[in-house]
């Protein structure tokens, strides 16, 4: 059983920018939406004005939180209203501590079951109902939501274009027998592997898959008292190995995106980056502007970042013809964010129509 709760400390946005009043609302989806073996709850925010083929952002909550907490505790709904994307807020079926199942073999395996399958069913339903863009599906979360972010990026690389995890652990670190198993060994930083070993764990989640891999962003506080900072280094080893990158950064930016945070970029094609937050506990700040930029969610043209375009090694091609996947725009190319100032994206600009 998980022994902590998480109070999301935001980057000042919730206090400064209340949700815009409109007919759009946070709603529970009660109709059948596909395989959902653990009976995870499905909440959604659909803005009044949708972009053509709207992108989808999945935002799983933390332990002892719920879908409403992530809805009210961030600015993603406001940003969705500005840019026309849809936000899915899954709700954990675990009534004991409201943590996500990131431990069972089912949830850690592609289309095998667990909470992860229920969440991907929510995505598929939303894509079909709202003519969503299957090439622009993203996931971000904090704490247990960050763990689920790692799980979804690892087990469903064919669905998600990118992920951003705050105060999480590497995919498979909590693996154990049963649903929602708490791992003291992982939490305290005792589960460590080489990059190659971590990559093998991720690739075993989807046997036979050799296709395109999503890009990934991770953030962690150096004095995290719940999920030891060692886990940050394990995430770095895991995802750089999965993506075929060196685990040594190619560039480092101090005080980015805020004071005492250090951004490390790996490789030459913006495919993996890690943020170390000095002096920050498990109560890490949400950084919506940083996440919006990483996902390119403020983009509304045909050059937006999307699944299947670009790669960690600089190629702009696709792997094994996977760009033909439903919802892909065959003519779309990735918009490069290189050359932009690390501080160039501000929420004030995000909250204005381009």
TrEMBL record:
Compositional bias (Low complexity) = 310-321, 338-354
GO MF terms here are: carboxylic ester hydrolase activity
Its EC top class is: hydrolase
Q: Which Gene3D superfamilies match?
A: alpha/beta hydrolase
Region of interest called Disordered, as start-end residue ranges on this chain: 310-354
A single GO cellular-component term from the record reads:
extracellular region
The signal peptide here is 1-23
| Coiled-coil annotated spans | none
Location in or out of the cell = Secreted
What Enzyme Commission number(s) does the record list for this chain?
A: 3.1.1.-
- Fetch the Pfam families from UniProt: Esterase_PHB
Answer whether the UniProt record assigns the keyword Nuclease to this protein: no
| Taxonomic superkingdom | Eukaryota
User: Which InterPro entries does this chain map to?
Assistant: AB_hydrolase_fold (IPR029058), Esterase_phb (IPR010126), Plant_Biomass_Hydrol_Est (IPR050955)
UniProt keywords (A-Z) are: Carbohydrate metabolism, Hydrolase, Polysaccharide degradation, Secreted, Serine esterase, Signal
**One GO-annotated biological process of the protein:** xylan catabolic process
State what this protein does. Esterase involved in the hydrolysis of xylan, a major structural heterogeneous polysaccharide found in plant biomass representing the second most abundant polysaccharide in the biosphere, after cellulose.
Family that this chain belongs to = Belongs to the carbohydrate esterase 1 (CE1) family.
Question: What NCBIfam families does this protein's entry cite?
Answer: esterase_phb (TIGR01840)
Record protein name field: Carboxylic ester hydrolase
Source taxonomy lineage? Eukaryota, Fungi, Dikarya, Ascomycota, Pezizomycotina
């Amino acid at each position: 059983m998980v022994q902590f709760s998480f109070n999301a400390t935001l980057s000042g946005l919730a206090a400064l920018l209340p949700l815009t009043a409109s007919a759009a609302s946070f709603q529970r989806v009660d109709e059948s939406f596909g395989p959902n073996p653990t009976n995870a709850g499905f909440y959604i925010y659909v803005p009044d004005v949708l972009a053509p083929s709207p992108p989808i952002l999945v935002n799983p909550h933390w332990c002892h939180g719920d879908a409403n907490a992530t809805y009210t505790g961030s600015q993603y709904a406001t940003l969705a209203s500005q840019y026309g994307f849809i936000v899915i807020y899954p709700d954990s079926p675990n009534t004991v501590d409201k943590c996500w199942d990131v431990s069972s073999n089912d949830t850690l395996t592609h289309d095998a079951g667990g909470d992860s399958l229920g969440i991907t069913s929510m995505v598929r339903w939303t894509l079909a109902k709202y003519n969503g863009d299957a090439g622009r599906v993203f996931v971000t979360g904090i704490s247990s939501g960050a763990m689920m972010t790692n799980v979804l990026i690892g087990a469903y690389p064919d669905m998600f274009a990118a992920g951003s995890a705050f105060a999480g652990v590497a995919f498979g670190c909590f693996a154990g027998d049963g649903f929602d198993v708490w791992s003291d060994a992982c939490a305290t930083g005792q589960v460590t592997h080489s990059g190659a070993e971590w990559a093998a764990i991720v690739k075993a989640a989807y046997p036979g898959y050799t296709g395109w891999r999503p890009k990934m962003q991770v953030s962690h506080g150096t004095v995290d008292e719940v999920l030891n900072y060692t886990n940050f280094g394990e995430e770095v080893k895991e995802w750089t190995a999965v993506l075929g990158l060196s685990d040594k950064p190619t560039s480092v930016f101090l005080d980015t995106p805020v004071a005492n945070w250090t951004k490390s970029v790996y490789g030459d094609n913006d495919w993996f980056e890690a943020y170390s937050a000095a002096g920050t506990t498990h109560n890490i700040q949400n950084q919506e502007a940083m996440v919006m930029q990483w996902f390119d969610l403020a983009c509304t043209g045909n050059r937006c970042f999307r699944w299947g375009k670009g790669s960690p090694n600089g190629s702009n091609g696709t792997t094994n013809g996977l760009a033909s996947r439903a919802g892909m725009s065959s003519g779309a190319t990735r918009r490069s964010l290189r050359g932009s100032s690390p501080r160039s994206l501000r929420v004030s600009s995000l909250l204005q129509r381009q």
